Amino acid sequence: MPFATVVADGHPGMADPVSPSASPRRSFLKEAAAGAVGACCILIPAGAAVVAWLDPLARSADGDALVPVGKLSNLPADGSPRRVTIVTSRNDGWTRDNAVPVGAVYLRRTADRTVEALHSICPHAGCFVDYVPARRMFFCPCHESTFAEDGSINDPQSPSPRPMDTLDVELRGDEVWLRFRNYRSGIQQKLPIA
Ligand code: FES
Fold this sequence. Notes:
The chain has two domains: 19-54; 61-179, Rieske Iron-sulfur Protein (3-layer Sandwich). It is built from two helices and eleven strands. The protein has helices at 22-54, 56-59; strands spanning 5-6, 12-13, 66-71, 82-91, 96-111, 114-119, 130-132, 137-139, 146-148, 166-172, 175-179. The strands form three sheets. A six-stranded antiparallel sheet has the order 3-11-10-6-5-4, with no helix packed on it. The chain has a three-stranded antiparallel sheet with strand order 7-8-9, with no helix packed on it. A two-stranded antiparallel ribbon has the order 1-2.
């Protein structure tokens, strides 16, 4: 009974006039192509992993990312701050830790859809700054620096060399997203720690 043969373009047609000597060569070419595809499957992911390990930007990509830190609707309308813990993932090139607490910030609503974020670390020597609701100000217990609700120094005697550090904030609907960074203490300039 006659039968059709599928040729390279996928259409049935006449049988390929294959010579006996061409068959082993074709088989060799098929095996070589399969080997090349297999090698690509292994080498491409391995190459990407090596690039990620060698590239410091790839390793610290999460450090510059915005992270969700809460809801706008949960912040008091009177501008008083709420302290929130920043939880993010950390990738050191070899391992990835999810949900690692890396610090804390104070969020406060300054207008209907405007939020300010203040780092909770004192710029003087790195202690945690407390918020004192009764006096509507921030107070650092280590050396008694005081700050107004907007983070500015409100006492000329405060040893802090600069106001509390602000952080970048973005509103996405009702969600507050923030770029968390730490800054050097003990100096007037606000310089991020690399
Ligand atoms: S660490 Fe805050 S006043 Fe010194």
